[in-house]
Amino acid sequence: MTVEQHKVEADISTHGKNPYEIVQELLKESVNGLGLDESIYQILKKPMRVLEVSIPIRKDNGDIVNYTGYRSQHLDILGPTKGGIRFHPEVNIDEVRALSIWMSMKSAIIQLPLGGGKGGVIVNPNDLNERELEELSRSYIRKITPIIGPKKDIPAPDMNTTPEIMAWMIDEYDKLNGYNVPGLLTGKPIIIGGSQGRLEATGRGVVITIREAANAINLDLSQATAAIQGFGNVGSATAHFLHESGVKVVAITDESGGIYNENGINIPELTEFVAEGNVIADYEKCESISNEKMFALPIDILIPAAIENQITKETAPTIQAKIVAEAANGPSTPEGNDILEENGVFIIPDILCNAGGVTVSYFEWVQNTMNYYWKEEKVNRELEEKMISAFKRVYEMKEEKKSGMRQAAYMVGIKHLVLALKARGWIKNGDLSKM
Fold first, then answer.
1. CB-based contacts of 37: which residues, under 8 Å, 6+ apart?
2. Within a 10 A sphere around the Cβ of 3, how many other Cβ atoms?
3. Is 175 noted as a catalytic residue in this protein?
4. Could you tell me the pTM of the whole model?
5. d(CA 354, CA 334)
6. Ranges of the chain with pLDDT below 70
């Protein structure tokens, strides 16, 4: 399989509004929504540390190319920071900062003892052969070694990084230390300390939150229809679990094109078709469909699981879905989000919807620490419990504050972080105001 087929989180590029500015605006609005002092926003608005590294690599033709890498650590008051490493040509420092803040929010919403971290290298991995990719992976982990570790910051796979790349990285770290440190990172191959259920965890979590949202709006999933943008790791797993739940997936699009069948797509057959090296656009048992037309379909559930800024002021008015489940990071612009809310669409925001990945990464870290490994049934059971509890906390906040689900999710995360800040003496009672 190619690295593209192992996407664990969807891409956030520099297209559209700066994601760092977006997340800061959301933090500010939510701090105000909780009636908290401005000082809380001042603590949360920036990562505590951002490292930039230079990674010169000798390519097979003899040329040396110098790549730039980053690692951002947002806040570690709850525990070590945690978050993925992505290899992508559009990685930039503001993207990494924003993603580390989003990771803090996800961990706080789920109530994991972790903070938010994120890393990336500005590179198109398709421009590297396997040896060059391995050298880049090992060199990157060497460069960030001073600030990472199982008690400091725990990396994981992200866009275009795979369990194999995680294995190279942990092997390099272990060589530097002289002993095995399985808890350094998560998303590893199972043979060297990875967790059962990790690869499917994000998609499984997406469907758990969809089920809870359907219950909230009295939607019968066995009669529901869905469309999915993206068929990488998250999109394909989401399609699989929706199919198992009785939902009829009628349309799927990705970078190769789109397919539509009003009677429902045969998801197991399509998954096998793609696993054989084909692209979904070549699947002949469906009609072709564009992304724009798919978004406008009269369906019950729309799942953006690809790239950022897809639900905009132009596309949002066309959406007829009752539920939008954000499997990708940042798929809705602020303007698009406002239009969906005005139209009564139930939004499952990204920091809740796709938090299944970090949740099972946390389970992997726990197993590494204990040196005792769980069966997949236990992993899935614990994931379901965490996701359901998180959904209920966000939904209750939405009802209490009469807000949208996105702001409610941020308020839940911020409230959890504020309690930790107060316990550590960072803030005083006066800063808490009406919370």
1. 427, 430, 431, 432, 433
2. 18
3. no
4. 0.91
5. 18
6. 1-16, 429-435
